[in-house]
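To fix ideas, we quote verbatim one protein's residues and C-alpha cells.
>
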Amino acid sequence: MADKPLPEITPGQFVEVRVDHSPSTYLRRPISINFVDDQKNELWLLIAMVGNGTRQLGKLKPSSQLNCLYPLGNGFTLPADSNEKMLLVGGGVGIAPLLHLGYEIKKRGGTPTFLLGARTREDLLELDQFNQLGRVFITTEDASLGEKGFVTNHSVLQKEKFSRIATCGPKPMMMSVARYAKANGITCEVSLENKMACGLGACLCCVEKTNEGNRCVCTDGPVLNINQLLWQI
C-alpha cells in the first residue's frame, strides 16, 4: 500500500480479501484490521489458517499483492474522556482488532486494560505489542499462562470497575462478557463474526436479528452495542 496513503480507519473495521489462485474460494474473506501504522503506511491483518482460503493467504510472500476492499463496516466507540476506564476483552484470533483499538486509546492519552484468553499460551499472539499499550491480564484454559479458566473468571473483574467494555472473539465468550457487562451496568460493544460474503450488505448472508429489526453485520456492524442484540443474557 506504499503507492498511496491509507484512508482513515476506525478500530473494529475490516477488509474483504480476494484469495487468488484458489478455485474453491471465489468469495472474498472478511478479516479484521489488526493494526494501522500511519508512519509506515502499513495495514496489518492477523490470520488464523483454518481453511483453504486462509491457508492460501498464509503462503503469500513479502511484496506479494493482495486485492482488498477496505475499510468496511463500523468500528468501536472510542472513549470521550482519556480518564475513562476501558476494558478490551479478546479470545483467540479475536484479539486482532483490539490492538488497533488499544493504540488509538493510548494515542488519545488513555490507558487501555486488556483481558486476553486462549486455550494455551501458544495461542496468545502479539503479547509484546499489547504490553506496550497498557495493562494486560491473561487467562488460559490449561493454566499455561495467566489465570486458569475463561476471561469472565479472571480476578480483575472482581477487583476493579470499568465504565466501558469492547470485546471480540468466539460468540460464547462474547455472550459471557456481555452478561457480565449487563449485570454490572457497563456499556459494552461486541464485534460480531457472522459469516460474510460481499461485505457490502447486498447478499444478506450475515444478517443479525436486533431489537431494531434485521441488520447486516457487514454494514451495520460488525460492532454493535449489546443493547441492540436479542441475545438471551
In short: The chain is about 20% helix and 25% strand. The chain has a mean pLDDT of 93.
